[in-house]
Amino acid sequence: MKEFLKTLGLTEDNDGSSTGQQGMHNPDQHLESHSPVDGALIGRVSVTTPEQYAQIVGAATAAFADWRMVPAPQRGEIVRQYGQALRENKDALGRLVSYEMGKSLQEGWGEVQEMIDICDFAVGLSRQLYGFTMHSERVLHRMYEQYHPLGIVGIISAFNFPVAVWSWNAMLALVCGDVVIWKPSEKAPLCGVACQKIWAQVAANNKLSEGICSLINGDYTVGELMTKDGRVPLVSATGSTRMGKIVAQTVAGRLGKTLLELGGNNAIIITPSADMDLVLTGALFGAVGTCGQRCTSTRRLIIHESRYEEVRDKLAAAYGQLSIGDPLDEGNHVGPLIDTDSVNTYLKAIEGIKAEGGTMVVDGGRIDGLGSDCYVKPCIAEVATDSAMAQQETFAPILYLMKYSTLEEAIAIQNSVPQGLSSAIMTTNMRESERFLSAMGSDCGIANVNIGTSGAEIGGAFGGEKETGGGRESGSDSWKAYMRRQTNTINYSTELPLAQGITFDLQAI
């Protein structure tokens, strides 16, 4: 463990790197990062004070004045260098993600690969920040739209993807000409410090201002400094729906912009024609990957009555083969939950399932003797289609099974929850797949056919509807969220005609 921390320049006391600004030490308050893998103290990170935050915003504001004037392809070159630095540190950073957050090592490496991929995407995007031209109704006039950077982009990220989601936002914002202030989750602060250290070296090599990309640390009160700050025109927040509603109301109160990625309660519909190999792989990884702590984790299987027993029994057998333990051991499939609070939430959810009459197909519970109190058993429960527990997002490896008889019924069940992030259908029937993807089908921001609900690629815009928040990050044209749109009209005639044929005769005055 110490070797990969040393590779990333991390020590037990990381005061100087917690803000991204030199001399911004706060010796009085610290976050302690304890690994859910073995309970050990990994390190301490200083908490950003309001005074330090004010200095950081001041530095970011000054940096924006210069950064926005750097040609976008040159900004892309800086992001390219950051991507290369991530390649060089992929093993160590992936191990830190796994150790501090608890996801499997393969998933930790995969998360860093997502960062690398988004850097590549952003580099190409830096030469494609296009606008539009349109014909004017007035003679000898030209109209077009263009995009300009917003300014400071505040990013609040969650523990489950402690580095990738920041990069989705930051790399696009940077090539757009914005500057970034990031508040990582207080449950995985060292991952943020490591990313900042890697960025700081790239910035120093290119003689860039530290204010272009900064880090603040602390609990929700530190995040509030950004959400209430009128100098931060956009706040991108990832987390629970409860948190997102608070952020949205606060930022809207000052007429700022938000980009929200919130809860998910994702389902796979399994049809009579489904390929069972695809079902088992997609459902199993979707339900237990990251110990059920992905916003895209599969939480519900909506199974046709003709395949129900088959799917239930084969899935239960597959759960029996899962290896649970230290996520840095590549032989294990499932690591721990993030902390004991999450364990207690998981245990209460199981009690709720039983109280409403659900049946446990695979029993859950805490697992002792694995190094910490954060390990639990992935479990499966049979519930009614109107189950109150299945309407909620429990951020843990609990999978609900329910039956349906018609596709219309299945889609209605799928769409009945408040969240609208990811969804999938397993079918070899083209009509079923097209119906699922149509306006009459899934109401989620992501709808897949013959793959699971998790594992999105960075090329497509990521996000969801309803209580998921409506935001879109990563690929496609999501870059527009980080810019302001401007319509321009140029008159190259010797007269000044008005739109809509309006006349304004000065000689009559």
From TrEMBL:
Keywords from the named record: NAD, Oxidoreductase
Active site per UniProt: 261
Region span, Disordered: 1-35
Sequence ranges assigned to domain Aldehyde dehydrogenase in this UniProt record: 29-487
Lineage top rank: taxon: Bacteria
Enzyme class: oxidoreductase
Keyword match NAD: yes
Listed GO MF terms: 2,5-dioxovalerate dehydrogenase (NADP+) activity
Gene3D superfamilies membership: Aldehyde Dehydrogenase, Chain A, domain 1, Aldehyde Dehydrogenase, Chain A, domain 2
EC number assigned by the record: 1.2.1.3
This protein's record includes keyword ATP-binding: no
Subunit structure: Homotetramer.
Similarity annotation: Belongs to the aldehyde dehydrogenase family.
Protein name per the record: aldehyde dehydrogenase (NAD(+))
Organism per entry: Neolewinella maritima
Organism ancestry: Bacteria, Pseudomonadati, Bacteroidota, Saprospiria, Saprospirales
